[in-house]
Amino acid sequence: AAPAESEDCLFLNVWTAGLGADRKRPVMVWLHGGGYAMGTASSLLYDGTNLARRGDVVVVGVNHRLNVFGYTHFGDIGGPEYAHSGNAGQLDIVAALQWVKENIDRFGGDPDRVMIFGESGGGGKVSMLLASPPAKGLFHRAVIQSGPGVMMGERAPATKAAEMLLAELKLDARRLPEIHKLPTDVILSAYFAVTAAWARQKNQGRAFMPVLDPVDLPGHPYHPTATRVSEDVPVMVGWNKTESTVFSFGDEQAFALDEAAMSKRIESLVGADAGRLIQAYRTEFPEMSPSEVYFYISSYSMMGADSIRIAERKAAIGKAPAYLYRLDWETPVEGGRLISPHGLEMPLVFDNVDRGGEGLTGGVDAAKKLAAVMSEAWVALAAGGDPNSDKSGLPQWPPYDSEKRATMVFDTESRVVNDPQKEQRLIFEKTGDRT
Are 354 and 255 in contact (CB under 8 A)? Predict the structure, then answer.
């Protein structure tokens, strides 16, 4: 394996229950998070040993180019030679999936039962692959965990970011080829300067992320006009109840809000509907503190609303099922104040509560029991395109539809709830459809 941070990053980690082509096991291809900017498939949290053993599957972790090396759109200033530069990181993943198709049988895997799954930025990568013609046919099921990714980068702002990078490097479009001769640390230094300036300018979206492209990504995933290259692929999508608590580290005020401060924060998220939304949560959850109301609403705004939108649109196409979930189990770490934070589902899905997942779950027995349930559901989806399994112990999980809106709520006692928090959903729908 390459060093933890290296331009030499195009390698895979493979875990299998057995080598050889005599047994064709489902294949689960993991795409790590990190907002297209950082991360690695080599984290202990993503170790596939337990999952491979539990589910008799093959687990593949993908490393690929990130940030400035994977998502700088020079296509509109550098000519045809740079046409795919804005999606190089995604095309690395496509190449990895092609490798899986051609070689995974040697590791006991079935190239016709490949599931991609990813969390946070990894969920965004899954979303892009679902709308990417080059990836068609390379995977057969998909899971988007806490990273809906309904919007990708537009070409104009992506070009602006590329021009800012060149300016930081004292280059211009005519001298673009010289960038290949620059040391990695020089390019990274310029990248950090650009991302800082991008944030100060309050530009919309990320400076370096997948970008719309007529070949690699013809349209935003899930848009009504998006290409339907993956319309026959079953999709599971979901989020954690209070994703935003983990993003509030360093903002201690968020954990001690009074009613006025909470209302102000919610208004900045949803505008004039803040009062109605707060009242809806207060009615359903009267025991919540102002901080908890903020965390619930901001998490729904951040992840929940778009997760539901994906399930709705997948169900409307009608070619393959969509399954929606919400993780409600509350971790005891940090005195319980994180509730159900961003990332909590990862040690549960990988069955790694005791293997890199202690910091998120506390390593408690309740987490281990839920890990057995959730990992079996993910394995079942990989194996047959349906998360229902006698091994998981879950109640029957129906596909999502616009009538019942069945949602699996993962908790100490998991349950299916039809259209949970309906009033809140309807209020969010009024605030506007980003796609």
Answer: no
183 Cβ neighbours under 8 A, 6+ residues apart: none
Q: What is the DSSP letter of 396?
A: P
d(CA 237, CA 233): 13
Count of Cβ atoms closer than 10 Å to residue 26 Cβ: 23
Q: Are strands 322-327 and 235-240 parallel, antiparallel or unpaired?
A: parallel
Distance CA 407, CA 311 (A): 10
Catalytic sites, residue numbers: 120
Who contacts 356 (Cβ-Cβ below 8 Å, separation ≥6)? Answer: 43, 44, 45, 46, 47, 347
Under a CB-based contact definition with an 8 Å cutoff, are residues 100 and 194 in contact? Answer: no
Q: What is the pLDDT along the chain (435 residues), one digit of tens a residue?
A: 445 666 678 899 999 988 876 789 999 999 999 999 999 999 999 999 999 999 999 999 999 999 999 999 999 999 899 999 999 999 999 999 999 999 999 999 999 999 999 999 999 999 999 999 999 999 999 999 998 877 788 999 999 999 999 999 999 999 999 999 999 999 999 999 999 999 998 776 789 999 999 999 998 888 777 778 999 999 999 999 999 999 998 899 999 999 999 999 999 988 888 999 999 999 989 999 999 999 999 999 999 999 999 999 999 999 999 999 999 999 999 999 999 999 999 999 999 999 999 999 999 999 999 999 999 999 999 999 999 999 999 999 999 999 999 999 999 999 999 999 898 899 888 765 555
| Residue type present at position 31 | L
Note whether 424 and 410 are within 8 A (CB). Answer: no
Helix extents (H) in 177-273 = 184-200, 259-270
Strand partners, 418: 406
Buried b (16+ CB within 10 A) or exposed e, 320-356: bbbbbbbbbbbbebeeebbbbbbbbbbbbbbbbbebb
Domain annotation for the chain: domains and CATH numbers: 12-152+210-249+295-421 (3.40.50.1820)
Strands 58-62 and 12-16: antiparallel
Tokens of 271: 């505008």
User: Cα 396 to the chain's mean position, in Å?
Assistant: 25
At 103, which amino acid appears? N
Contact 309, 339 (CB under 8 A): no
C-alpha–C-alpha distance, residues 367 and 85, integer Å:
42
Q: What is the DSSP letter of 357?
A: -
Kind and range of the H or E run holding 358: helix 358-361
Task: Identify the H or E element spanning 98.
Answer: helix 88-103
